[in-house]
Amino acid sequence: NAGVTQTPKFRVLKTGQSMTLLCAQDMNHEYMYWYRQDPGMGLRLIHYSVGEGTTAKGEVPDGYNVSRLKKQNFLLGLESAAPSQTSVYFCASARDTQYFGPGTRLTVL
Amino acid sequence: AQSVAQPEDQVNVAEGNPLTVKCTYSVSGNPYLFWYVQYPNRGLQFLLKYITGDNLVKGSYGFEAEFNKSQTSFHLKKPSALVSDSALYFCAVRDNRKGAGNNRKLIWGLGTSLAVNP
């Protein structure tokens, strides 16, 4: 099993550009999550999903959208990137315990 | 408000010595408790969890954690530290009460950086 994978690993955007981060899991987990990690702020939940076709807001959802059209994939979109969205983004999936992907390092100039 | 505290930003320990990384929580009921480790430029890896039963939980890489309900603590321990244990450690808690939502969401501590010196 590959577990949780994320693409891309790195990305540099200019302010105002859009992009989509892809998270895929092959463990048949119902629950999926998107976090951002910033120095000194720990992990903050952006959005999450409790099953295919469902999404819900986390602590810091503004500026992001998500979709869960297939059970194994959870997409995170930035419609108009801002420098404040420079961060490392992690996806996780869970049946009971959350398992994490390797992360995407995003820089917005 | 529900919260998880890791009172030490950084812990330094000599290789071969025992280590403890502290975690306390403020979550009602009987929460599930987790420890994760993050090595530099990597994702978080699950170490261990407490659900119920024996207060001492054993996990990966020789780590264990002690649950203390009266002190609402879940400290991570290892009898003999290795240089390769140097990493960022996160404590997390899941509220399992009815009404908390069936979403497996975790409440996270801010992390403790462990440095093991040779």
Question: Explain this structure to me?
Answer:
The complex is a heterodimer of chains A (109) and B (118). In chain A, the strands form two sheets. In chain A, strands 2, 4, 5, 6, 9, 10 and 11 form a seven-stranded mixed β-sheet that branches. A four-stranded antiparallel β-sheet of chain A has the order 1-3-8-7, with no helix packed on it. In chain A, 0% of the residues lie in helices and 53% in strands. Chain A is built from no helices and eleven strands. The model of chain A has no long low-confidence stretch (mean pLDDT 96). In chain A, strand 9 and strand 10 form a beta hairpin. Chain B is mainly β and 118 residues long.
Throw out a few tags for this protein.
heterodimer, A: 109 residues, mainly beta, seven-stranded mixed sheet, B: 118 residues, four-stranded antiparallel sheet, 49% strand
Note the main sheet of chain B.
6 strands, mixed
The residue fraction in helices of chain A comes out at under 10%
Stretches of chain B where pLDDT falls below 50 for ≥5 residues?
none
In terms of DSSP E residues, the strand content of chain A is: over 45%
Mean pLDDT value of chain A: 96
Listing every helix as H and every strand as E from the N terminus to the C terminus, the arrangement of chain A reads: EEEEEEEEEEE
Query: What is the molecular shape of chain A?
Result: globular
How big is the Rg of chain B? 14 Å
Instruction: Provide the residue-averaged pLDDT of chain B.
Output: 94
Total beta-strand segments of chain A: 11
Please trace the helix and strand order of chain B, writing H or E for each element: EEEEEEEEEEEE
Q: Total helix count of chain B?
A: 0
Largest sheet of chain A: 7 strands, mixed
In helices, the fraction of residues of chain B equals under 10%
Range of strand content of chain B:
over 45%
Q: Could you tell me how far the N terminus lies from the C terminus of chain A, measured between alpha carbons in angstroms? A: 36 Å
Query: Care to count the β-strands of chain B?
Result: 12
Structural class of chain A: mainly beta
Largest interface: A-B, 23 and 19 residues
Low-pLDDT runs of chain A: none
